[in-house]
Amino acid sequence: MKKFFLLLIAIFIVKVAVWAVTNKDNILDRGDRPDETICASTADSFSNFPNKNCEEILVTEHEHEQRGQTPMGSETVFSDFFAELNAIPVCNGNDTDPDNNKDHEIHTYSGFTLCYRESYEDAEWVAYILTREELKAVTGRTNDFRPDPSISTGSSDLSDYKKSGYDRGHLAPAADMEWSIKSCRESFFMSNMTPQAPQLNRGMWQQLESQVRKWADRFGKVIIVTGPVLEKKAEEYPAIGANRVAVPEYFFKSILAQSEEGTAMTINFIMPNSKCEGTLWDYCVTADEIESRTGFDIFSFLPDSEEEKIESSVNIEMWK
C-alpha cells in the first residue's frame, strides 16, 4: 500500500510538471511581488505544505526536520496543483468572462492558496495542507482583519460587512494557521473572508473546522479544499457593502487523507448558508456532487480508477 501511495505522488508531480509547461501564461505574474521567492518545484513527500515564502518563513529548516517535515526547498508543487484547478475555471456557466484573469486571481500565502473572483468579491476556493505538527505550534489569534493588498482589483473591506447581518467567515480558519504569526495574520485578509450567516459560522461550520483539526491530528496530515458554492452568476446573488460582496447560498469542504492501509480517502460536505440542524454527518456528500456544482476537478492528480472510487461514494465510518 505504501508503494501505491508513493505512485500517486509520482503521478501528481508529473501532472503538475506538464501543467506548468502548458499553462505558464495563465498564472499571474509574480514579478510584482518582491516579497515572494519562488521555491524549487520538486517534491519528494506528501507532507509538503502549500508554497511558503522561502526567505521569510518563520520556521527554520532545522525546526522542520525536528518536526518531521520536508525542508522549505520543495514546497511549491502542491500549491501549483491547486492553481491547476482554476487557472481559467468553468463553473457551470457562472463565468461572465472566462478569459479575464483578473476575475481568477490565484495567490499563495504562507499557509494557503486561494483563487479570488473579483466579480463576486469572494474567493471561490482556498486550499491548504494541515499537519499534526502544525497543530502543536500555536501562536494565538490576531483578529487583524484587513483588505488584501495582493488582490490587483482590490478585495472586500471591513465596511462591507458592517451592519450586514453576516459574519466575516474564514475559509482558511485562523485556528488552522496559528503555527506562525505570519500565516495567522494572512488568514485575516479579507480575501479569505466570505459572508456567512452567524448561525452557520458559529454553529455547524465551526464544528466541521474543529473536526478537520482532529482528523489532521489523527491521520498526521490532511488536504483541505473549501469555498462557497458559486453556481450562479455574480449578479444573481444578494450582495453586501459598497463592493457588492456576493452572499453564497452554500459552502463546501473537501478533505483528503491517507488511511491506515496507505490508500487515499476523502470526505466532503456541503452546508447551506443558514442554521444547520441535525449532525455533521447529515451534510456529507460525494466529491462528485461538489465537482458537479462547482465545476472543479478536485482530485485530478489521482489515477482515474482511484479518483472515481473515492469521489463517487461516501464512507463515513472511516472518518468516525
Q: Explain this structure to me?
A:
- This protein has one domain (2-319): Extracellular Endonuclease, Chain A (3-Layer(aba) Sandwich).
- The chain contains 9 helices and 11 strands.
- It has helices spanning 2-22, 61-66, 76-85, 132-136, 158-161, 181-186, 198-219, 287-294, 304-311; strands at 105-108, 113-117, 122-131, 167-170, 193-196, 221-228, 239-240, 245-246, 250-258, 264-272, 284-285.
- A 7-stranded antiparallel β-sheet has the order 1-2-3-6-9-10-11, with helices on both faces. It has a two-stranded antiparallel ribbon with strand order 4-5.
- A hairpin with a 4-residue loop joins strand 7 (239-240) and strand 8 (245-246).
- Helix 1 crosses helix 3.
- 43% of the residues are buried.
